TrEMBL record:
Pfam family, one: VapB_antitoxin
Name of this protein: Type II toxin-antitoxin system VapB family antitoxin
Organism whose genome encodes this protein: Nesterenkonia sphaerica
InterPro entries: VapB_antitoxin
Highest taxon above the source species: Bacteria
C-alpha cells in the first residue's frame, strides 16, 4: 500500500462516507476507489442482462421452472 499526501474535498469525503457507511477517511477513500474500480465489471453485467443472450424470460420452459 502506498502512503500519499493529497488534498481531499471535505464535503465530498463526508458524503462518500455517509453513502458507503465508512467511519474513517482511509476506509472511505479505499472503499470509494474499490467501488469505482469494480464499476466496469458491474456495467458489463448490466449490458449482458439487457442483451438478447440473457433475455430468455419469454421461453415457456424457463418461466415454468421459475415457479418451482
Amino acid at each position: 500500500m502506498t502512503r500519499t499526501l493529497i488534498d481531499i474535498d471535505d464535503d465530498a469525503l463526508t458524503a462518500a462516507a455517509e453513502e458507503l457507511g465508512t467511519k474513517t477517511k482511509v476506509e472511505t477513500v479505499n472503499r470509494a476507489l474499490g467501488e469505482i474500480a469494480a464499476r466496469k465489471e458491474r456495467l458489463k453485467l448490466l449490458e449482458w442482462l439487457r442483451s438478447a443472450e440473457a433475455n430468455d424470460l419469454g421461453e415457456p420452459g424457463v418461466m415454468d421452472n421459475a415457479w418451482r
